[in-house]
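Quick start: what a row looks like.
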Amino acid sequence: MTICYITIDVEYDFGFARRTGAATHEIDFVRSINCVTPHGAAGVEYQMNVLDRYGLKAVFFVDPMPALIWGVAAIEDIVRPIVARGHDVQLHIHTEWLNLAGSKNPLGERVGNNIKDFTVDEQRILLQYAKNVLVAAGAPVPVAFRAGSYGANDDTLRSLAALGLRYDSSYCPGIASSLCEINLPPGVRTPIEHCGVIEVPIGCISNGGDRLRHAQITALSSSEMISALYYARNNGASCFTMVSHSFELMSRDRLRMNKIVRRRFEKICSSLAQMSGVTTGTYTSHLPCAAPHREHAAVLPFSPLRKGLRIVEQGFSNLLYGSR
């Protein structure tokens, strides 16, 4: 059985808070978490409705750092419905929020765009703060982490291990220019023990030549994602991780629902529900297992047809809803 981890990064919009002032918790929640539009919601509640309809489970990586300016209640608003619906809540961090924290910054005046910008001791302080907030907001004690913008390094993993978080999913081999600086051997695409934790890479497919493309809802078509899952199953992969965000089914300006990406999400979920040999899992129900490193583990081979159809679809999506 191949475990599909549907992972959804849930985060308030730091840029919006910076532009409009700190008193925008409720507006930011509507824009970035529940994503309410005149034609219905497209955020976390909607995503859980689709998941529940097909009997699927997801991992929601929740960023607690906005509690620095809005308090724990702003995170509780996110966590409470996810836990109530039986989905998994794990830890996520965007350290940009330190820029708005003022005297509440646990590092004093130290700021940085990514967690890797800090020393190992500073990272441990930030992770401990975020972990405490997440639990105070009603989440079970987290066991897994993903860095905002994938901006982690080996010190991040060492800090996670010291705090008892056993799993990380910040390594994204499908993005050549990723901000991730986790030092892994070439070709790692399956869970691997590293720096005291099990690193669970983001899934990817071949994009032609030596290029890869990451398994994100806005990066792959439904055909590519479904084909990648079948390929993982047929080649004995223990797991496959796909990525989305709370706001990913929205237009670029977060004012309208992106109907193309919404259909893509629903198609992937409906196909997963019918896929034999593949089931969705969480870091509570199905813990990833590290395996010996295989040089250049197999990924879905390149298909000019699938890529061409995706490019056309993306072109329409960008034209109608703004480019990502």
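That is the whole record. The longest helix spans residues 304-321. The longest strand covers residues 2-10.
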